[in-house]
C-alpha cells in the first residue's frame, strides 16, 4: 500500500492561504472595514470578532478565484487570481497592522491565540508597498500556472511529441528502459528552467514582507507557526530524523542492490553508493513503490496488486459504457472511455468515503460530487496535483451548506487510490472544525492536516483490502507480513528524508546561506546528504530542478509532510488503542469502529483552537512528537532488511557530482501546449 505525501498538496486552509476574491466591488468593500473603519474604541475581542466575520464573508470569493486558476489555466484566470491575491494580501496586511495595536492590552485567551494565528496566516508574506505587493501576487500566480502548463516537447512540426507531467511520470513508473527513463526525467526538470528568475524575485519579495512583520526572513516566519520557539524546530526535526534514519538506510541499501541487479551497478549507482535519481520510479525520488516489481520480498506470498484490481474495475465499467453506446466507431468508443474513467474515479472516491462513514463521520455533501474535479479535462490545462478545498467554511448554516471539493486527475492505480483516502482526510478535517470561528478553522499544526488521511491509509491493511474485494485473502505468515510492510515502506519510509530536505533548501534560500547562483548545486547536495540520490548527469546552474517540484513554485511549506509521517503513526496507535486492539501494531485496522471514530472526530473538531501539543495529548496521551510508534510498526521489516543486507556496504558518500557542466545533450526546452 502506498501513502501519498502530498502532497498536497495542499489543503486550502487558514495556515496556507494566499487566495483572494475575484469580484472587484465585493473585495473592495470587504477591504474597507479592515483598513479604514476600525473604531478607535474597539477592543481586541471586538476586533477579532469583526475579522472573523469579514474573513468568512470574503472567503468564498477568495477560494473561487484560486479554484479557477487551478482548473482553467489561461491568461484570464491567471489575471483574476493575481488580482485576487493582491486584494487578499492587502486586507491581511491591514488586519495584521491593526492587530499590532493590541499588544499588551487585555483580551481573552481565544483572542490572544487568534491574533497569533492571524500574523501567521499566509506562507507568502507580502510587502506593504502596493506595487511590490501586486508584483508578488502576479509572480505567485505565474509560477503556479507555469508549473501546471509545463510541457516537454521533442521533434518538430508534425513529428513533434509533447508530454506533460502525467505522461512523463508514467514512463518512470512503468518502463525499465534506462534511456527512456532518463529522457522523461530530464524532460520534466527542463520545464522548470523558465521559472528560475521569477522564483529568485519571489524570494526577495516574501523576505521583505516577512521582515516588515518582524521576522528575519520568510523561513523563520514559517518555523514560527508550531507553538514553540522557531529556533527549536530544526533541532526537533533533526531529533526525529535521528530516530528514523537507520530504518531508511536499511531500505536504501536493499533497494540499491535490487537496482544494481536490474540495471548494473555502473548505471544504478552514482558517486559513492547513491542511487541514480531517474531510477526510483518517481520524478522526485520521494516514493519508491513503483519499484515493487523488483523489490517484492516474496512474490508468491499473496497478491497485493491493488492497481490490477482497479484496472479490472475500469474495464468492467468500459464494457458497460460500450454496450450502452451501442457502437464501435472511434467517437462512441472515446465517449465510453471517458464515461468509464469518470465512473471508476467516483467509485474509488466512494470507497474512500465509506471508510470515514464507517467510523461514524457524515457522508460528503451532494455539492462535493457536483463540484469536484475527478479526472483530467480534455479541453484545458489544469493543475493535476491532488488537493482538497473548503470553499466556504461550512456555509452560512442556513440556506448555504458546506462546499468542499477535491481536485485530482484520477487514474485507476494504487497511488491514486490511497491519495483519495489522504485527500478526504483534509475534507473531513474541514467539516469537523467548520463550526469554529474562522481563524480557528485550520489544523492544530500543518502536519496534522496532512496526517489525517494518512492515518486512515495505515488502517488499509491486507484484511481490509480483502474485505472490500481489492486483493485476495492473505495467508497469515511472516512472508505475507514482510510483503505488506515493504509496500508501506516503499512509500512512507522512502519519503522521510525528502520531507526534510525541501524546506532545508528553502530555509537556506530565504536566509541567504544559499545564494541564487547556487540554487541547483545546493539542491543536489541536500538530496545527496538526506536521500542518498544523485543525478546521472551533471546538473549545472542553467537548470532549476527545485522548481520541478510543485511545492516550490506553489510556495507550500513542506516540513508538514515530514511531521505528518511521524504524527500519522502516533494517531494510528492512539486510535488502535481506542478501538481495543491488542495485537501487533502493523496488523491493526479500526475500520467500522465507532469508538475510534468518535475519538478521531473529537480531535478534528478542535481545529487550531488550542496548541497542537494539547490536541496530540488528548488522542495519544503524550504532547511530544515521537517516531517510536513508526519504528514499532516497521520493526518486523527492519529486522528482515538487516538480514537481507548482511555483508553489504550500506550507506553512501554524500557528495553530489560537481554541477558545473551541462549535460552532453541538453533536453529540449518546454513548449506551451
Automatic annotation (TrEMBL):
Endpoints of the signal sequence: 1-20
GO molecular function: metallopeptidase activity; peptidyl-dipeptidase activity
PROSITE patterns, alphabetized: PEPTIDASE_M2, PROKAR_LIPOPROTEIN
Disulfide bond sites: 153-162, 384-409, 576-588
Annotated active site: 423, 551
Domain of life assignment: Bacteria
Keyword set, alphabetical order: Disulfide bond, Glycoprotein, Metal-binding, Signal, Zinc
InterPro entries: Peptidase_M2
One Pfam family of this chain: Peptidase_M2
Binding site for Zn(2+) 2: 422, 426, 450
UniProt: Zn(2+) 1 binding residues: 422, 426, 450
Gene Ontology cellular component list: membrane
Keyword Glycoprotein: yes
Biological process according to GO: proteolysis
Positions annotated to bind chloride: 226, 560
Name this protein carries in UniProt: Peptidase M20
